[in-house]
């Protein structure tokens, strides 16, 4: 029995030692075990039913949107953002949309909301490791401008966010799905 415990203990120590060596190697590379942009991708993104629900949700909300002068997801959001960083930007917009608008408003616009929110939450989870190398201050500034606009508009800003969930959906697809999969 003692020999078995000693064997298991030395095997465990070998595994721990190998893990430490791997962590040290990653630290020497600046933690770059996986390319930063590798996690900024979505695969198997689009199911026809969720596309329909997303567009119906946006359409229902747009009936209540009285502010036609403001566009939240448009050229201004992408100002100064490289194409390779757009998925990261859209991850930030997705997280804001879920946390600050869709979840608090989840009792509205049924049955669409109950289908779309879990789908978008799953996309957010899939993008949780998405980061960019370098400074993201320009992206954070653009996202903050969007947040400030929504806050300034109050409830109508939240309705506008929901009314643009179709734009969020399509922009996520265009920014985060590899081009080889985008047409599928």
UniProtKB/TrEMBL annotation:
GO terms for cellular component: extracellular region. It comes from the Eukaryota. Keywords: Signal. It holds the Pfam family IL22. Residues 1-33 form the signal peptide. InterPro entries: 4_helix_cytokine-like_core, IL-22. The keyword Repressor does not apply. The keyword Signal applies. This is Interferon 2B1. The lineage of its organism: Eukaryota, Metazoa, Chordata, Craniata, Vertebrata.
């Amino acid at each position: 029995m003692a020999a078995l415990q000693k064997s298991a203990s030395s095997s465990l120590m070998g595994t721990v030692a190998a893990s430490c060596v791997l962590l040290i190697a990653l630290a020497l590379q600046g933690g770059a075990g996986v390319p930063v942009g590798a996690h900024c991708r979505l695969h198997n993104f689009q199911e026809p039913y969720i596309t329909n629900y997303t567009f119906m949700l946006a359409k229902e909300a747009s009936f209540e949107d009285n502010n036609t002068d403001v566009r939240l997801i448009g050229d201004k959001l992408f100002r100064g953002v490289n194409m390779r960083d757009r998925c990261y930007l859209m991850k930030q917009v997705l997280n804001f949309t879920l946390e600050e608008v869709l979840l608090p408003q989840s009792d509205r616009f049924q049955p669409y909301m109950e289908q779309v929110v879990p789908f978008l939450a799953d996309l957010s989870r899939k993008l949780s490791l998405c980061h960019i190398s370098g400074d993201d201050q320009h992206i954070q500034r653009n996202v903050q401008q969007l947040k400030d606009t929504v806050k300034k508009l109050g409830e109508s800003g939240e309705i506008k966010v929901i009314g643009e969930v179709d734009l969020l959906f399509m922009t996520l697809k265009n920014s985060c799905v590899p081009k080889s999969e985008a047409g599928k």
